[in-house]
Design a protein that fits this description.
single chain; Rossmann fold; 9 helices; globular
Length: 252
């Protein structure tokens, strides 16, 4: 389970051009749930996920992952988290099998267990005929499969997926979507970040909409549609973003 309370991140805090990237962010994510963090580009999604993943420290507020504080017990938190982001690059010269092995060793997984884990991931993502190919030779869809395998090499119970479907073709997208659903079925806790409302409609149990660093709503999809009298998440999203912009403009 992941819980954020009063989360705030300010960049350039001691300079004139400070930027409030995340502003009083509060939400919780349960086991066996896909929680969507939805927002336009630059809304604060990735910064929030980086904080949860211990990559960035918050300016204010707290985050707990399975009861562990991300600052006081960062190393333990990392063992319980798999973080997938488009900015984590794979090594083109390594093969698929070498990639999984390399990341497994970074987590200090016992060699015998790692060998079995690598074999399992290759089977899980149907990469057996690609296991000895270099990353540079793979399609975007195959690379994303390897990225997902790398993300879960240590078998984490909390997955943080930052726009994992971006740039995938229909077949690759379906395979990644099925993987995410399977992880939920196994009782894992999943944060799914996207700016594509149709992805959230298909996958997410609950959502939070974030813009300009602020959480505008949190709740189950259908309940939010009823609350805001909308037929789709896209309509809810547009209504909330416009309302926020109107309030901002009224204070200028």
């Amino acid at each position: 389970m992941i819980v954020t309370e009063g989360l705030k991140k300010i960049f350039n805090k001691d300079k004139k051009n400070e930027v409030v990237a995340v502003d009083n962010c509060n939400f919780s994510v349960n086991n066996g749930e896909i929680f969507g963090l939805l927002g336009p580009n630059g809304a604060g999604k990735t910064t929030t996920l980086r904080i949860i993943s211990t990559i960035l420290k918050p300016t204010l507020g707290t985050v707990n992952v399975d009861g562990l504080d991300i600052i006081e017990e960062a190393n333990k938190v990392r063992k319980n988290i798999g973080f997938l982001t488009g900015e984590t690059k794979l090594y083109d010269r390594l093969t698929v099998k070498e990639t999984f092995t390399y990341f497994g060793r970074l987590y200090n997984i016992d060699e015998a267990k790692l060998k079995k884990r690598v074999k399992k991931l290759i089977e899980m993502f149907e990469l057996d005929d690609k296991k000895n190919k270099r990353i540079a030779e793979l399609s975007d869809g195959m690379r994303q499969k390897v990225s997902l395998g790398r993300t879960i090499i240590h078998n984490p119970k909390n997955l943080i997926l930052d726009e994992p479907l971006t740039g995938l073709d229909i077949l690759a997208r379906r395979e990644v979507t099925n993987f995410i659903k399977k992880e939920r079925k196994q009782g894992n806790c999943i944060i799914f970040s996207t700016h594509v409302m149709s992805e959230a409609e298909e996958l997410c149990d609950r959502i939070a909409i974030i813009n300009k660093g602020k959480i505008l709503c949190v709740g189950e999809k259908e309940k939010l549609k009823m609350e805001y009298k909308c037929n789709s998440l896209e309509e809810v999203f547009i209504q909330l973003i416009r309302s926020q912009d109107e309030k901002s403009n009224s204070h200028i």
